[in-house]
Structure formats: C-alpha cells, structure tokens
Design a protein that fits this description.
Helix content is 40%, strand content 9%. The protein has eleven helices and four strands; from the N terminus they run βααααβαβαβααααα. Strands 1-2-4-3 form a four-stranded antiparallel sheet. Helix 5 crosses helix 8.
Length: 313
C-alpha cells in the first residue's frame, strides 16, 4: 500500500483547485462509459463543480502564497487489488476502496494531533477513484523509447486521488501536512499542528490489513523495505533473522496441516456495507507509529529516487 502527499509544485495548490479537478476528470473524458463521480465520507455521487466550489470557498485568512489544498494519492499494490476483487468482485472492490479512503482520511486528521480534528468529518475533502495510470516523461520506459508518454501502464492500476482543503471543515483551523518541524517550542508546535508524514504513510498498511483481513507478509511491508535500504547493518541483520523465523514457522505449520482433510472457513465479506451505499462511515481505532521513510512522492512506484519536498506555511 503506497500513500503519499504530492508536492505543492506539482499541484499548483496556491490558487484555485479548478485545474486539478479538471485534470482528475480525464478518465471521464477519455473513456465513453458511466462517469466516475467524486466521493467523500458522506456521498458517492458528487459533481466536479461542487468539489471546486467547496475547496475554493474554504480558504479564510489564507494569503496569496499559502497552499489552499493538498493532493493525497492512495495506491494499493496489484496483489491488494486482486485480493479486493476476489472478495468483493469488480464493482465491490471499487466501493471498498472508497470505504478505505475514508479511513485513510481519519488517519490524516488524527495525525495533526489537534483538538477538534479527530476524523475525516472534520475535514473538507473529495476523492476520485481512477482505474488507469499513464507513462510520463520521467519513466524509464519513455526515456529508453520503449513506451510513449501518455501510454497506459499495464496491470491493474486502480487507485484513489484525494483533494483535501488546507482549512478544516469550520474554515478556521489551518492544517498543513508539510509542517513537519520539531521545534523547541512545544506549545507553538502543538498549536501549528505537527504532521508526521512517515506515520501517516505507514498507517495505510495496518488500516488495509485490519479492515479487510489481508495477510501481509513481512517482506511486503514498508518497514521491511526501508530497513533493508536505509537501516544499519545490525537492523538489516535483525530484519532478515525475523523473516527467516517467520518463514520457518510457516513451513512447520504447513507440514503439520499437510494431508488433513479440512474445509476452509468461508470468507466473511463486508456485505453490510454494500447493502447501503451511504453506510460506509464507521469508526476504527488507529495506532500510528514512527518508521523510516524512503517512499517516493508524486504517486510514483516505490523504488524511485526521492524528490525534494517543499514545506508551506
């Protein structure tokens, strides 16, 4: 599960959201099929003009050079997408991604550690589910001439893009995920609302696993990848030892159960959420912990080089 907050240079987020909203409508323009509407924690059929109106109208006391909104990308792996489709079907998987997006925005709100900012209901945000990704000039395949810019990338590329206002739902509190400072003045930092981007990105895995019962192997976690790439020699050795221990336990369990004629328990899907389209808002406790971060930003694949991040006021 890859979650990132796009750098403000890419979103031009100091002016109107019109350009970004229009860009995220691209699949509705390109593909002649039922349009994909915007959604938030309460509705699933929001029109783009309403997104622009709400985002652009929630900017009280923000200056010309202040960020007005941020773009969050939620990209499950192809294994996670396949798991959702196996459990819920094609349309059900899309619906469950919207459920998951609301939980991610809960984690986003809680990460600020600000009184009154407790869940996605305290934010102004809108999500857009997309089914495809396209090659850009930065992709290696384009640079080598294998693919052309704009060509569709292979595999299942379902993901969610979210526009979230800089101001909270009351239009009074400034919330910037780019405020990552750890100043000496604790009271000032508390007032401004520190945001731990690593903890936020890390929370996506635990949210997905807990919500859908996904069995994530150690080598599929963000912590594993970051430790092997950025950890000390001792940390890398410890991670490898842990991986070997888990593999040994799994092998022993498989050997014990081999030959046993048992029927698997039926998978209990979240059919209660599918019965009522507006019922997917529910509470979930989140334990956000620190981790080492080497994820790429701007929605690119995990093993890309980091791009510079720009803090905003």
């Amino acid at each position: 599960m890859f979650i990132n907050i796009t750098d403000n240079k890419q979103t031009d987020n100091k002016a109107s959201s019109n350009g970004l909203v229009n860009y995220l409508e691209k699949e509705n323009r390109i593909h002649n099929k039922e349009p994909e509407y915007w959604f938030n924690g309460s509705q699933t059929n929001i029109e783009p003009y309403e997104v622009r109106r709400k985002i652009d109208g929630n900017i009280a006391k923000l200056g010309r050079d202040d960020a007005k909104f941020f773009l969050i990308n939620i990209s499950p792996s192809q294994k996670e997408i396949a798991f959702l489709k196996q459990c819920y079907g094609e349309n059900g998987a899309k619906y469950q991604m919207k459920v998951f997006a609301a939980r991610v925005m809960d984690a986003y709100a809680q990460n600020f550690k600000r009184p009154g900012i407790e869940s996605h209901l305290d934010l102004i945000w809108f999500g857009k589910l997309e089914n495809y990704r396209y090659y850009s000039h930065n992709d290696l395949e384009v640079k080598r001439g294998i693919k052309k810019r704009g060509d569709r990338k292979p595999g299942d590329q379902m993901h969610v893009q979210i526009i979230v206002s800089r101001k909270d739902a009351t239009n009074k509190i400034k919330l910037s995920p780019q405020n990552t400072s750890r100043g000496k003045n604790a009271e000032h930092s508390k007032k401004m609302g520190q945001f731990d981007r690593v903890a936020f990105k890390q929370s996506g895995e635990s949210l997905f696993d807990d919500l859908f019962g996904f069995d994530r192997h150690l080598n599929e976690t963000m912590a594993y990848s970051n430790t092997l790439k950025n950890g000390t020699l001792k940390e890398r050795i410890e991670m490898k030892v842990q991986e070997e221990q888990l593999e040994s336990v799994a092998t022993e369990t498989k050997e014990v159960t081999a030959g046993m004629e048992t029927l698997p328990e039926p998978y209990q899907s979240h059919t209660d959420f599918l019965q009522n389209e507006d019922s997917y808002v529910f509470s979930l406790d989140i334990d956000i912990k620190d981790d080492i971060d080497d994820e790429a930003i701007n929605g690119r694949n995990r093993h890309r080089k980091k791009q510079a991040r720009t803090n905003t006021r």
